[in-house]
Write a structure and sequence with these properties.
The chain is α+β, with helices and mostly antiparallel strands. It contains 20 helices and 13 strands. α6 packs antiparallel against α10, α6 crosses α11 and α12 runs parallel beside α16. The chain is elongated and about 90 Å long.
Amino acid sequence: MPNRRFADGEVVMGRWPGSVLYYEVQVTGYNDVSHLYTVKYKDGTELELKESDIRSQSSFKQRKSQSSSSSPSRRSTSRSRSRSPGRGAKGRRRSASQSREHKDDKKKTIQETNVALLVLGFFKPSENNTRRYNGEPESTERNDTSRIILEQKLKPDLETERVLEQYSLRPRKEEKKKEEIYSEKKIFETIKTIEKASSKTKELEFGGRIGTFMLIFFLPATVFYLLLMCKQDDPSLMNFPPPLPALESLWEARVFGVFLLWFFLQALFYLLPVGKVVEGLPLSDGRRLHYRINGFYAFVLTAAAIGTLLYFEFELHYLYDHFMQFAVSAAAFSMGLSIYLYIRSLKAPEEELAPGGNSGYFVYDFFTGHELNPRIGSFDLKYFCELRPGLIGWVVINLAMLLAEMKIHNQSTPSLSMVLVNSFQLLYVVDALWNEEAILTTMDITHDGFGFMLAFGDLVWVPFVYSLQAFYLVAHPTAISWPVAAAITILNCIGYYIFRSANSQKNSFRRNPADPKLAYLKFIPTATGKGLLVTGWWGFVRHPNYLGDIIMALAWSLPCGFDHILPYFYVIYFICLLVHREARDEHHCKQKYGLAWERYCQRVPYRIFPYIY
């Protein structure tokens, strides 16, 4: 076994992968199996390097002293020649002219060298990219793309030799004979090309282009299938397909007008100058967008408006009678909105495009969202749709189902099952609006673009699928006893407590890790400057908020009984959705945090379900 040359804590010079540049690093560990050193750069980036890519600082200092010791002899020779007795005034003038030319040439060379070093410095490690090096980078898509483009730009051997020679900062007369020189404009155009190519989405989700194309049709079909099944006397899965209504019965202009009125009423509430204004997380260009936090105020105003309608005896169960038509109207509106979003994204600057929706494929970018934060002035379309029309509409639909149950079954009070479903889901919505600021740190806001996926999800899937239990109970009433209701309530409270306390813990730590109230939390530091919690709920499982979500979803479905599996579609869907999100989060965190994430996974082995998954 080879002997170890560098000790832990020793400061050495480490070569950055794919370049000839060395940076000052500190040795933090050594792997006896792979014979790789773990080193840490000044900006916190951690890499694994081979011993051949590490040099001691003394070797660099020795080279510097050798080059400086040779310069006095050249200067003395130059002085002896300038003072030669055989040279007259004309010679001295020629010498002064040559000296000025020499200085100008040296100044020009140094300027060109700085530009060349700027290109080479483009590969300097950044605090947002932790990579491992074992001969070749393990996850270096940005570096690979950048290196390919640079190799195309600097392909001729003569040009490559020239850039490397300039790094020595020594002027050479033969460089004057070269016709092509690298200007700053050309260098910065190269960097711009590199950044544009590296910002493209490389890994496609949801089955890529074919999968997203199918989902555009499959998602609306799923919604309509679920609503049609709930209307059947026997909503068994064996009764497939359900009888399809006439096409002309699915559309009514009045229903579409009511939907538009609802959408723009929520937009009006969003624009009211009430509530605090906060900053979002930094964007790729360092900017922070401003958001007005007034979702709870919009909910209160909506409740007042609905109360006024009920006072004047407006029949809110109109929603139940035209539920399918409202779903069709919402789907048509979301499709039109998605088309508008994609067309406007074609003119958006490169830095405003979504990291996950910039593949260059029309269908994929249309589905996932091409632009990250589309805005009309200060009106943020994605942020508005995320919580307002669909989430508040979910509560209104549940209330309409409760009133429809009372009218259809001639009841003076709603059933206990309907009360539980309405109460549980009302708590969930009010919690989301009360903690509205927390959504600014989610991947929906920071990573995903606003396209068909979020537009359809916010405006159609949330209000019409999440209200499936209440819609089911209208046509299929289920009686439950008070002890059963109490047990279901306790289950929902457990899920809510896990969900809320885990999210609050994460958001508080992310906003201010130095908060004295969080001093009891332990974490693993990362190269990005952020920490990974290993105590509290986040030391129990990696995604405790998902665990709370699933427990609550089960509590929402239990009041519907066990006669049919249809009310439990939401639980099945939620588990599949969260497992997908968990896998995406795992991949994203592994790329972002590198070795720190591997240590976190060893410390917290279970993902969602303790001792199971």
